[in-house]
Specification:
- There is one protein chain.
- The protein is an alpha/beta fold and 192 residues long.
- The chain has a single domain, classed as Rossmann fold (3-Layer(aba) Sandwich), CATH 3.40.50.300.
- 58% of the residues lie in helices and 13% in strands.
- The protein contains 10 helices and 5 strands.
- α1 packs across α10.
- The radius of gyration is 16 Å and the shape is globular.
- The mean pLDDT is 96.
- Bound molecules: adenosine-5'-diphosphate.
Amino acid sequence: MVNFLIFGPPGSGKGTQSVRLAEKFNLLHLSTGDMLRAEITAGTDLGKKMSLIMSKGELVPDEVVIEMIAVKIDSTKGKAGFLFDGFPRTVAQTVALEKMLNERGMKIDSMLVLDVDHDELVKRLIARAELSGRPDDKDPKVIENRIDVYREKTEPIIDYCSKKGLYQPVNGVGSIDDIFVRLAEHMSKIVR
Ligand code: ADP
């Protein structure tokens, strides 16, 4: 099993690239953002509770996303491993993920971090709002908050993973195809 984290600020292209990479490398793509939006669409109690937090661009509680991942962690049947997208988003989530993987004889094998400058992120998210219909993409204040939350709560994971030799930065500016090739090149060094 080989397990990747795909990382980067909101608008860095994690979701788009993850779908393609998961297919190429036969990985199970787990996006906590997608799982949370599915709860909202299904109108579950959890979805109702989380939608206000998400619409403000804040993080939902660690326990909520850790539990979502915990119920999926035994579903790698037929897959080469996991591609975690938008999870972990805090150091506490990272520690919880490592524990779940270690208990199953697995680990985080690499963390791919998409580098995209601030202005490009804002431009992409505003453009995406039209297509996604996501409330958190529409409001420039919410976009700025999501980027701030990323810098404050999520970026420390880079340091944590760097110390373990897992950090792999990737230029996230360019065409979708070019960025895909860059990511795939790094991943193919790890996947056998
Ligand atoms: P983006 O990367 O564009 O911000 P996501 O789809 O990954 O989009 O996440 C959307 C929102 O869902 C986040 O702003 C946050 O409120 C919530 N969320 C998703 N994943 C997590 C997580 N691992 N921890 C806490 N909140 C999360």
